[in-house]
Amino acid sequence: MVTVTFITADGRRVAAQADEGARLLEVAQAAGMPLEGTCEGQMACSTCHVILPPDWFARVPRASDDEDDMLDLAAGVTRTSRLSCQIVLTGALDGLEVRIPGEFHDMQRR
Ligand code: FES
User: Fold this and answer.
1) Among 30, 41, 81, 109, which one is least packed by beta carbons within 10 Å?
2) CA-proximal residue: ligand 1, atom 4 (nearest)
3) Would strands 2-7 and 96-99 be described as parallel, antiparallel, or unpaired?
4) 39: Cβ below 6 Å to ligand 1?
5) How far away, in angstroms, is 94 Cα from ligand 1 center?
6) How far apart are the C-alpha atoms of 5 and 96, rounded to whole Å?
7) Single pTM value for the model
8) How far does the centroid of ligand 1 lie from the alpha carbon of residue 70, in Å?
9) Number of neighbours of residue 50 by Cβ within 10 angstroms
10) H/E segment holding residue 1
11) Domains in the chain, please, with CATH?
């Protein structure tokens, strides 16, 4: 099991447990986080945008060029932003902290 702590836009901490191999987006949704994930992991919407603390950002496998391109379009993007649909949980990510941004931008609904 991998434990992930979500930090909501209003500062609440919500801990969740997930199996290794689960996608961060699904774990966040199961924990009640308001990530729409409209495109279901096709890297076409950016509504699964999350922000990682810098130390965790450095430990998560790097984003692909396609993910970086989509992140450029996300609202409130930061240097440690990621698309949660592209992060697969492994034992190395046990204890991961993830901040949920306060604004969203659905690229499929303009
Ligand atoms: Fe659409 Fe991640 S769910 S980009």
Assistant:
1) 109
2) 43
3) parallel
4) yes
5) 22
6) 6
7) 0.91
8) 9
9) 23
10) none
11) 2-109 (3.10.20.30)
